[in-house]
Recombinase domain-containing protein
Amino acid sequence: MVIYTRISKIGKSNSTNTSIQVQECLSELRYLAKDRNVRIVIVAVFQEDDRSASKYSKKPRPMWEQTVSLVEGNWVDMVIGTEMERITRRPNEMSVLIDHADPQKPGGSGDLREINLTSDDVFDLTTDNGIYRARQAVALAERESNKTSKRQRRKQAERAKEGFSHGSRRAYAFKKGNSELDKEGKEFKGLRAAGGRRMKGWSNKEIAFWMNENGYLTTEGKLFNALTIRNMLRRVRYAPWPEDENFAIREHKGDHYKAQWKPVWTPDEWESLKLIDKLGMESTRTAQRRGSTS
């Protein structure tokens, strides 16, 4: 059998820590071994940290993929976790396990027989009732996940309308929390220098080379390139709000709102950067058209 544990975000309380989940599973397995009078062999213990099981998540789940690989390799007759939502919230992932438990299905072996939860629930995948209950449990977990995602999207939209930022990734030249520019920091000076050089006619590639040569790095600690410079100088969050140049623009889903933070660029600087970017794109298109007809 295999133990699979998961938490969506690191930093939650100890009650959801994957190490605690593992201990709960081991305790449950000791009880099962005694109750069923069988010897249980643990093939693998997987702890998936900072990985959502929601369909909205784009992060891979390598530990889940290894769990499925063990099932496909007929190494596992039981998957155990603390709750169904810890294992999966996606009906298609449950279907993969169910198909491998069915010897009549292509690739199925019948080796996987049950999904066991420490929350006092067992799904016998050799019976129609067990399969039905497993599908229902995942459907319920997915429903709760969808409701949570909708609440989060509504909250984000409300914060955007009020001019507040959201998201854990810090924007370049901003302090942690993305609600205030770090005007004394190196990044702010680098951003202003990059914009100034762009307005003087430097290419994005030349600016990237200059930034790297002078020790500037992206927020992820990587070197700049022409694309990252272009995208950075295009960011609306650095631009002034048209009706009040003392505040920046908060963009959300294509809509613009008055931000709570100060802009990086003056109105004239922002218009210059937009014009230069537009002219640069038109020059590129013209060169491409000429090249295709030559």
Observations:
- The longest helix spans residues 128-161.
